[in-house]
């Protein structure tokens, strides 16, 4: 073992050990931080319009004082368009940002993220962690919940600690480990006691939580009980291999914290079947079958407004359950061309990531060789019902958080996260409700709402400074910007909203981050010159 390798003998390393053995290494870790100014002894953001993340509407003008990476004062300094005299405002800092005409929001929380994916190694030289981290920071993501820690728990905890010490340019990281109890992925836990023991060892190593893909019910029930004892939070992707014995409602009753994606929700709503309708030739190991049939579940379930629909909704609300829908990761299923030809691929999608998306690789989510109009229509109908459930759950007081799951299915890191904001709005959330989901609600899910998620004195300075109000159009948050016509010269421009991402008091210039990413992508292309990118 060299100094650059992590010890992969322990708990939480099962998946990377298996991947390593199959020729898939962990990502190259982030290099020492080469961007960002600060943290400063005292930094003052002057004359800002604040949108605080709680759902409160914008207000101005405010001065925000940050000392050693923490918000120490928020002061109203006059009236809109009429700032108070300097003498009545907070004293000067050693760094100041003029925020007149700008909007300050909390940093975004991606509750379903993967710091790259070792699978991509089979499609060419893998993107380094810096590529992923900088894409996130450039799109305002200042916290990620690593759902599975597939690079290994030790690897993830190392990047978490280095990020927290501002040694690398990266978001705050919460490490959730893959619970190895499903046959088609990796199963080493075969009894409830083995599950409990594994979780105790995981907790001792410093993991923040657990990512389930399902498990035999007795193991799952014991594991969720042990999570409660240990104070580990949990999320579950209810894989089709496990969902028949355990829908989302079952695991929610046993104490699961959040459902990931949509798997298991439709099954919770089934009333005239127990098992989804499969054709005899179905094979879960074939990604085309997996994803085409996944687009049919909601129409086989109880319909909106039915007694069953309402009962299920009521019970999830009573349980205080959370949904992390990750709408964006399935966006290609309802409109392949849109996602495949997205504006950002040319400059921002790394060569091996692009290769991985293609159907010939046979990798996870690469099933386009048979995708049809019928498949897209199935998925459009599926989304309507799924979005209706999620929006109604929010309207009735339930917690819904933003997660991107990027790195698969034509969703590139950062861009996929902003797409998720757009899709929550499509589901019926107002822009302020979307922002609340992206900030304070994510912080509550991750149990870090005393630290981040809103703009309040005492919290860490994970803040975004926008040149334009992002609530006016989430497209302004894409690294490529949003198309606008400059009325003065009649030319099309692509303005962006996000100017600075402040993470832990360190101020990142988004232009610099985007330039770094374009350079990394260009280099990756030079190594794969035949790569056809639209
Ligand atoms: Zn995922």
What would your notes on this structure say?
- With 534 residues, this protein is an alpha/beta fold.
- It has 19 helices and 22 strands.
- Helix content is 34%, strand content 18%.
- Strands 1, 2, 3, 6, 7, 18, 21 and 22 form an eight-stranded mixed beta sheet that branches. An eight-stranded parallel beta sheet has the order 8-9-10-13-14-15-16-17.
- The protein is globular and about 75 Å long.
- The mean pLDDT is 94.
- Bound molecules: zinc ion.
- Residues 112, 114, 147, 405 line the site of zinc ion.
Distinct small molecules: zinc ion
In the predicted model, the low-confidence regions spanning at least 5 consecutive residues are: none
What is the first-to-last residue Cα distance? Answer: 42 Å
Structural class: alpha/beta
Shape by Cα distribution: globular
Short description:
It contains 19 helices and 22 strands.
Question: What descriptive keywords fit this protein?
Answer:
binds zinc ion; eight-stranded parallel β-sheet; 22 strands; about 35% helix; about 525 residues; alpha/beta
Note the topology:
Elements: H1 14-21, E1 43-50, E2 59-67, E3 70-76, E4 78-79, E5 82-83, E6 95-98, E7 103-106, E8 108-113, H2 129-138, E9 141-148, H3 153-164, E10 172-178, E11 181-182, E12 186-187, H4 192-205, E13 209-212, H5 217-230, E14 233-236, H6 240-243, H7 248-253, E15 258-260, H8 265-268, H9 287-294, H10 307-318, E16 322-324, H11 331-334, H12 336-340, H13 345-348, H14 351-357, H15 373-395, E17 399-400, H16 415-427, H17 431-438, H18 440-445, E18 463-466, E19 484-486, E20 491-493, E21 498-503, E22 506-509, H19 510-527
Parallel strand pairs: 1-6, 1-7, 8-9, 9-10, 10-13, 13-14, 14-15, 15-16, 16-17
Antiparallel strand pairs: 1-2, 2-3, 4-5, 7-18, 11-12, 18-21, 19-20, 21-22
Helix pairs in contact: 2-19, 4-5, 16-17
The structure holds zinc ion.
Zinc ion is lined by residues 112, 114, 147, 405.
């Amino acid at each position: 073992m060299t100094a650059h390798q992590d010890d992969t003998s322990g708990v939480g390393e099962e998946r990377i050990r298996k991947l390593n053995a199959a020729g898939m290494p962990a990502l190259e870790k982030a290099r020492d931080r080469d961007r960002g100014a600060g943290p400063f002894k005292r930094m003052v953001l002057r004359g800002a319009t604040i949108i605080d993340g709680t759902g409160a509407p914008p207000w101005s003008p405010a001065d925000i004082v940050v000392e050693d990476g923490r918000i120490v004062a928020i002061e109203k300094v006059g009236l809109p368009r009429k700032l108070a005299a300097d003498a009545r405002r907070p004293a000067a800092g050693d760094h100041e940002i003029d925020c007149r005409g700008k909007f300050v929001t909390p940093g975004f929380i991606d509750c379903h993220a993967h710091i790259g994916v070792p699978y991509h190694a089979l499609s060419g030289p893998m993107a380094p962690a810096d590529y992923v981290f900088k894409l996130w920071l450039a799109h305002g993501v200042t916290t990620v919940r690593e759902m599975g820690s597939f690079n290994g728990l030790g690897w993830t905890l190392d990047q978490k600690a280095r990020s927290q010490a501002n040694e690398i340019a990266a978001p705050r990281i919460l490490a959730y480990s893959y619970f190895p109890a499903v046959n088609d992925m990796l199963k080493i836990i075969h009894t409830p006691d083995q599950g409990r023991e594994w979780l105790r060892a995981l907790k001792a190593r410093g993991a923040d939580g657990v990512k389930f893909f399902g498990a035999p019910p007795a193991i799952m029930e014991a594991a969720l009980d042990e999570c409660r004892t240990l104070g580990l939070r949990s999320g579950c992707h209810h894989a089709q291999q496990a969902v028949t014995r355990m829908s989302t409602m079952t695991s929610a009753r046993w104490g699961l914290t959040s459902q990931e994606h949509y798997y298991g929700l439709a099954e919770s709503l089934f009333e005239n079947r127990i098992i989804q309708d499969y054709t005899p030739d179905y094979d879960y190991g074939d990604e085309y079958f997996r994803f085409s049939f996944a687009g049919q579940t909601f129409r086989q379930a109880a319909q909106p407004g039915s007694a069953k629909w309402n009962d299920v909704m009521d019970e999830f609300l009573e349980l205080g359950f959370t949904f992390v829908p990750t709408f964006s990761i399935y966006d290609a299923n309802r409109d392949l061309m849109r996602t495949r030809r997205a504006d950002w691929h040319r400059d921002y999608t790394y060569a091996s990531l692009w290769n991985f998306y293609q159907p010939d690789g046979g990798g996870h989510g690469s099933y386009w060789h048979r995708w049809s109009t019928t498949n897209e229509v199935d998925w459009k109908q599926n989304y309507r019902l799924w979005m209706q459930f999620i929006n109604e759950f929010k309207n009735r007081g339930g917690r819904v958080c933003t997660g991107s799951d990027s790195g698969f299915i034509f969703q590139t890191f950062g861009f996929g996260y902003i797409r998720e904001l757009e899709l929550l709005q499509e589901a019926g959330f107002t822009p302020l409700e979307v922002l609340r989901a992206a900030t304070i609600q994510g912080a509550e899910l991750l149990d870090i709402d005393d630290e981040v998620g809103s703009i309040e004195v005492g919290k860490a300075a994970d803040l975004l400074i926008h040149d334009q109000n992002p609530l006016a159009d989430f497209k302004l948050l894409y690294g490529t910007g949003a198309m606008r016509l400059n009325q003065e010269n009649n030319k099309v421009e692509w303005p962006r909203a996000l100017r600075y991402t402040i993470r832990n008091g360190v101020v990142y210039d988004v232009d610099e981050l985007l330039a770094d990413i374009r350079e990394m992508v260009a280099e990756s292309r030079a190594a794969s010159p035949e790569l056809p990118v639209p």
